[in-house]
Design a protein that fits this description.
The protein contains 5 helices and no strands. The chain is an all-alpha fold. It folds into 2 domains: 47 residues, no CATH class; 31 residues. Helix 1 packs across helix 3. The chain is elongated and about 55 Å long.
């Protein structure tokens, strides 16, 4: 039974072979890589292998920092500011 490192290496090799097999698959990978430009190639490859439709990635620490920041903003709001928030925006078509 392969270790996790071996399994991930196999996944990376398989994905690299798959994305370079055709022009269309390479273009699909580049679309994902363009959305994930902050990451190095090997991480883009692994993200694509697991979730090609990914639009953003963050580790647990980043997510907690974003959540804490948003909650702190809400805590500092006055009652009037909070009441003005549109928590349920209307997504109906404005034809």
């Amino acid at each position: 039974m392969p270790s996790n490192v071996q399994a991930l290496a196999q996944m990376a090799d398989h994905t690299a072979t798959q994305i370079t097999a055709s022009h269309e698959s390479w273009t699909d990978f580049l679309k994902t890589a363009a959305r994930l430009y902050k990451y190095p190639y090997h991480e883009q490859l692994m993200i694509y292998a697991q979730r090609p439709e990914a639009t953003a990635c963050a580790d647990e620490t980043e997510l907690l920092a974003l959540t804490d920041s948003a909650l702190e903003k809400l805590r500092r709001m006055s009652d009037e500011e909070y009441a003005k928030l549109d928590l349920f925006p209307d997504f109906e078509d404005e034809s």
